[in-house]
C-alpha cells in the first residue's frame, strides 16, 4: 500500500522560506538597495519629460531643454547600470539560496527511513526531487529578483506620482487594487488544481518508472494493455487539470488587460478636462500617464509570476514536507553493540493488524553461517531486515549484546551488521566514488584492497583504474561487475555480521557463479545470515532455520533437519526432484 510523503503546512513553508532568506540577509539588503536605486532612476525620466513639456509651453530656451535632456540621459544610463547590477546580485543570491534548499532536500531524502521510502512509492519521491525542485529553481533563481524589482518599481512609481500630481495620482492605486483583486479571485480557484496536478504527476512518474524498469515482467505477464489503460486514465486526468488551469489563466489575462489599460484611458480623459481648467499642467498629466504606463509592465509581469509563484509554492510545500517524516526509531548516541545478534520474541506487521512475523526467537553464533529457508511469503526477507536493524520490530527485541539494534547510531549499526540484497546499484561517478560511499575517508590503498577481496581489482585496473567513470554517461557495468562493486563497499565497511538476501538471484547463472566466488572473500571470518531461495546454500550452512507463515518451525543442521523428516526435508525432496 502506497502512502504519500507529507505536505508541509503553509505556515511552516513560509517560516522555512523566510529562514532561507534571513540566512543571507546581507545579500538581500544589497539587492534591495540596488533595486531601490534603479527604481528611483527609472521614475526620473517621466518627471523630466513632463518638465520639458511645461518648459516649452512656458517659452523656456533651447539650452534649458538640452540640460534636461542630458539629465534624462544620465538617469537612463544610471538606471541601466543599477538594474544590471541589481539583477546580477539577485541571481547570485538566488543561486546561493537554491543551492542551500537543494542540499537540504538531498539531506532529508537520504535520511528518510527505509520503511517510509518503500511505502511512499518511487513516484512521489522522484517528482519531489525532479519536477518540484525544477519549479522552485526557476522561482528562486529568477523569480526572487523579478518580484523584488516589481515591488520596488511599483512602490517608487506610486510615490513619485503623488508628488508630481496628487489630484490625479489616485488612479494608480485603483489600478494596483484592481490587479490585487483579480489575483485574489484567481488564486483560490487554481491552487487546488495545481496541487492535484502535482500529485498526479507523482503518481504518473511512479507508474512510468516501474513499467520501464520492469518491462520484461510486464511483457511476460501480458500486463501491457492494462498499463496502457492506466496511463490513458492518468493522462486524461492530467489533461483535464491542465485545461482547467489554462482557462483560468485566460480569465486572468483578460482581467489584467482591463485593470491596466482602463486607468490609462481614464487618466487621459481626466487630463483633457483638468488641464484646460487650470488644475493641472500638460506636463504633469504627461508624467502621470507615463507613470501609469510604466507601472503597467511590472503589473503585467505579475500575471506570469503569480502563476509561477503558485506552482513554486505547492512545490515548496512538497519539498519541505520531506523534512516532516518522523524517524522510525530513536537512536542512542552512546549505544554500542558487542556480541552476536539475538532475536527475542520478535513480531512485525507492515500494516496494523496484519503481522507477518510471530514471536521469533533466534540467537546467532559468532562466525557461523545460518541459512533461512521456507516457502515464498514465509517472512524470510522481513526477518533478515529485522536482523540487519532496518526495521524496528512491532514487538520484541533485536539486540547485539545489551544494545537494541534500532538504537545504535548509523555508523555503529553498520559496523555490526549490513544487509546485501539482490538489487545492485551503480551511482554516477567514478569507481572510487562508488566504493567510497561505504567510508568517505578511505584511502586509495584501502579501496584497492576491497576490490581485490571481491576479485574486481584486475578489471578495474585494466579499464581505467579508480578514476573510471561509470553509470549514466560512463562505462556501463555488467550485472556481475556491478554486484562486485556493491560487495567491495561491504568489504570496506567491514561489518561483523552479513545478511545476504539472495544476493545473486537476479543474475544469470554465469554471473551468479562469478559473484559467488567474490562473496567468498567478503564472508570469510564473519557471521553470515543467508536468506536462501536455492537450497544448495542451506546445505553448506552451519545451521538452517525453516520459516513457515512468519514463524521458525525448525532449526538445526542440514543433516539433523533431513533426519527429522519435517518441513525442511519436504522442501529438500521437492528441490532435489526439480
Task: Give your account of this protein's structure.
With 578 residues, this protein is α/β, with parallel strands linked by helices. It has helices at 10-22, 25-57, 62-110, 114-120, 122-129, 131-164, 166-169, 171-213, 215-220, 224-274, 282-321, 380-387, 410-416, 431-436, 444-453, 457-462, 479-493, 509-523, 535-540, 558-564, 567-577; strands spanning 341-351, 354-363, 369-373, 395-400, 403-404, 417-420, 429-430, 469-470, 497-501, 527-531, 543-548, 551-556. The chain folds into three domains: 1-165 and 304-325, ABC transporter transmembrane region fold (Up-down Bundle); 166-279; 341-576, Rossmann fold. 66% of the residues lie in helices and 11% in strands. Helix 1 (10-22) crosses helix 11 (282-321) and helix 2 (25-57) runs antiparallel to helix 11. The chain is built from 21 helices and twelve strands. The mean pLDDT is 82. The radius of gyration is 34 Å and the shape is elongated. Strands 6-9-10-3-11-12 form a six-stranded mixed sheet, with helices on both faces.
Topology:
Elements (H helix, E strand, L loop, with lengths): L9 H13 L2 H33 L4 H49 L3 H7 L1 H8 L1 H34 L1 H4 L1 H43 L1 H6 L3 H51 L7 H40 L19 E11 L2 E10 L5 E5 L6 H8 L7 E6 L2 E2 L5 H7 E4 L8 E2 H6 L7 H10 L3 H6 L6 E2 L8 H15 L3 E5 L7 H15 L3 E5 L3 H6 L2 E6 L2 E6 L1 H7 L2 H11 L1
Parallel strand pairs: 3-10, 3-11, 6-9, 9-10
Antiparallel strand pairs: 1-2, 1-4, 4-5, 7-8, 11-12
Helix pairs in contact: 1-11, 2-3, 2-6, 2-11, 3-6, 5-6, 5-8, 6-8, 6-11, 8-10, 8-11, 10-11, 15-17, 17-18, 20-21
Subcellular location: Cell membrane
GO cellular component, one term: plasma membrane
Keywords: ATP-binding, Cell inner membrane, Cell membrane, Membrane, Nucleotide-binding, Transmembrane, Transmembrane helix, Transport
Amino acid at each position: 500500500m502506497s502512502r504519500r510523503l507529507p505536505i508541509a503546512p503553509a505556515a511552516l513553508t513560509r517560516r522555512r522560506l523566510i529562514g532561507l532568506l534571513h540566512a543571507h540577509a546581507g545579500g538581500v539588503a544589497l539587492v534591495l538597495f540596488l533595486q531601490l536605486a534603479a527604481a528611483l532612476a527609472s521614475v526620473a525620466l517621466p518627471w523630466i519629460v513632463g518638465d520639458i513639456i511645461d518648459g516649452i509651453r512656458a517659452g523656456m530656451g533651447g539650452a534649458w531643454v538640452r540640460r534636461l535632456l542630458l539629465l534624462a540621459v544620465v538617469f537612463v544610463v544610471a538606471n541601466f547600470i543599477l538594474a544590471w547590477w541589481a539583477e546580477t546580485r539577485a541571481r547570485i543570491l538566488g543561486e546561493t539560496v537554491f543551492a542551500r534548499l537543494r542540499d537540504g532536500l538531498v539531506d532529508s531524502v537520504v535520511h528518510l527511513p527505509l520503511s517510509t521510502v518503500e511505502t511512499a512509492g518511487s513516484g512521489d519521491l522522484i517528482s519531489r526531487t525532479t519536477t518540484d525542485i525544477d519549479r522552485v529553481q526557476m522561482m528562486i533563481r529568477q523569480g526572487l529578483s523579478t518580484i523584488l524589482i516589481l515591488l520596488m518599481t511599483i512602490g517608487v512609481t506610486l510615490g513619485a506620482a503623488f508628488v508630481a500630481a496628487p489630484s490625479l495620482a489616485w488612479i494608480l492605486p485603483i489600478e494596483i487594487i484592481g490587479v490585487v483583486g483579480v489575483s485574489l479571485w484567481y488564486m483560490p480557484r487554481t491552487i487546488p488544481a495545481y496541487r492535484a496536478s502535482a500529485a498526479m504527476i507523482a503518481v504518473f512518474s511512479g507508474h512510468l518508472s516501474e513499467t520501464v524498469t520492469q518491462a520484461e515482467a510486464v511483457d511476460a505477464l501480458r500486463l501491457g494493455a492494462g498499463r496502457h489503460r492506466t496511463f490513458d486514465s492518468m493522462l486524461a486526468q492530467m489533461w483535464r487539470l491542465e485545461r482547467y488551469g489554462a482557462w483560468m489563466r485566460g480569465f486572468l489575462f483578460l482581467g489584467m488587460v482591463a485593470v491596466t489599460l482602463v486607468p490609462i484611458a481614464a487618466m487621459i480623459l481626466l487630463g483633457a478636462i483638468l488641464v484646460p481648467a487650470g488644475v493641472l499642467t500638460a506636463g504633469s498629466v504627461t508624467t502621470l500617464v507615463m507613470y501609469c504606463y510604466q507601472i503597467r509592465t511590472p503589473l503585467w509581469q505579475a500575471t506570469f509570476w503569480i502563476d509561477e509563484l503558485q506552482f513554486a509554492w505547492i512545490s515548496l510545500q512538497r519539498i519541505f514536507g520531506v523534512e516532516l517524516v518522523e524517524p522510525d526509531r530513536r537512536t542512542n548516541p552512546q549505544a554500542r553493540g558487542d556480541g552476536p545478534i539475538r532475536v527475542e520474541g520478535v513480531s512485525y506487521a507492515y500494516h496494523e493488524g496484519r503481522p507477518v512475523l510471530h514471536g521469533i526467537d533466534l540467537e546467532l553464533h559468532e562466525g557461523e553461517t545460518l541459512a533461512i529457508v521456507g516457502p515464498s511469503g514465509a517472512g524470510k526477507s522481513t526477518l533478515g531486515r529485522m536482523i540487519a536493524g532496518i526495521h524496528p520490530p512491532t514487538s520484541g527485541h533485536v539486540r547485539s549484546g545489551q544494545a537494541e539494534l534500532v538504537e545504535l547510531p548509523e555508523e555503529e549499526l553498520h559496523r555490526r551488521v549490513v544487509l546485501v540484497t539482490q538489487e545492485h546499484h551503480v551511482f554516477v561517478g567514478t569507481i572510487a566514488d562508488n566504493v567510497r560511499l561505504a567510508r568517505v575517508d578511505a584511502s586509495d590503498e584501502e579501496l584497492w584492497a576491497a576490490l581485490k577481496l571481491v576479485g574486481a581489482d584486475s578489471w578495474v585496473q585494466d579499464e581505467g583504474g579508480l578514476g573510471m567513470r561509470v553509470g549514466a554517461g560512463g562505462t556501463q557495468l555488467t550485472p556481475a561487475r556491478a554486484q562486485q562493486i556493491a560487495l567491495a563497499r561491504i568489504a570496506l565497511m567491514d561489518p561483523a555480521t552479513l545478511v545476504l538476501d539472495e544476493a545473486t538471484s537476479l543474475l544469470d547463472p554465469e554471473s551468479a557463479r562469478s559473484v559467488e566466488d567474490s562473496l567468498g572473500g567478503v564472508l570469510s571470518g564473519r557471521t553470515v545470515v543467508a536468506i536462501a531461495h536455492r537450497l544448495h546454500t542451506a546445505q553448506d550452512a552451519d545451521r538452517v532455520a525453516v520459516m513457515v507463515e512468519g514463524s521458525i518451525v525448525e532449526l538445526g543442521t542440514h543433516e539433523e533437519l533431513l533426519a527429522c523428516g519435517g518441513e525442511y526435508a519436504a522442501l529438500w525432496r521437492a528441490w532435489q526432484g526439480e
